[in-house]
Amino acid sequence: MVPPARHLLRAKDRADARYFEPLTVAILARAAGLSQAHFSREFRRTFGEAPHQYLLTRRLERAAALLRNTDRTVTEICFAVGLNSVGSFITTFRRVYGMPPLAYRATFPPAARHIRIPACVALAYGRPQNRTFREAAPSARP
Amino acid sequence: MIKIANAQFWVHDPDEAVAFYTRALGWEVRSDVTMEEWNFRWLVVGPVGQDDVGLVLMPVPTAPMLDAESSDQLANLVAKGAAGTLFLETDDCHAAYDELSARGVVFNDPPTPQPYGIDTSFRDPSGNNIRLTQVLEFSIDRH
User: Fold this and answer.
1) Is A2 near chain B, with CB under 8 Å?
2) Are B127 and A5 within 8 A, CB to CB?
3) Confidence of residue A142 (pLDDT cuts 50, 70, 90)
């Protein structure tokens, strides 16, 4: 018998794999074969956080990796991780990481970029853990 | 010396698992022995050409080996993807991705350049994570 969590894992995998697309909780719910309300409830019960929060922290984690590992601009990185408002990206990033994106980039010396860890480890461990934040509204000022 | 002989995954359904590892992944069955009196099946698969390391596909135990609550918890951990990862290597990640995709493997991500090589990942039917990496000379600029 397959535990129901297996279907929720499909949605979580989808968030990890396609975060750069305009994914929504509704799309993730379809990946799990559940209604959106039921999906959000079950996802939170199973993985300990709401699906929109998981998706947002995945995007922030990927943005932080691009800040550390590339020279791409903040605007490019914002869109590259599936977020569509630079202002709210900067606000949310600052709230979660305690500093704006470029300051975060500056705190990483080049040597830190040479640690060899598998990408799956970075994905699993690198996601910000603040449980209370939510994405800044697009109208928020950076 | 001491070598790795077998690694082990918990699976929900051994028939479904062995079908995946042989038909989709293309591996061979190394051992498939059922001990009726114990209701136990020793099922080992492995990649063709690498005889000395195998993967044991072990059904999540039920009572009396494991109490019902723990058995449910373990089955759920596997389904949540929290029960471990198998790290595989290939000499051509893109070719392996195409070949396995054609046989029905659904990947979590396309082959992606990383500083240590090119890799991708998928899950077995139970939710166990499998990482497939083509190792290349380390380069921080490959990403």
Assistant:
1) yes
2) yes
3) very low
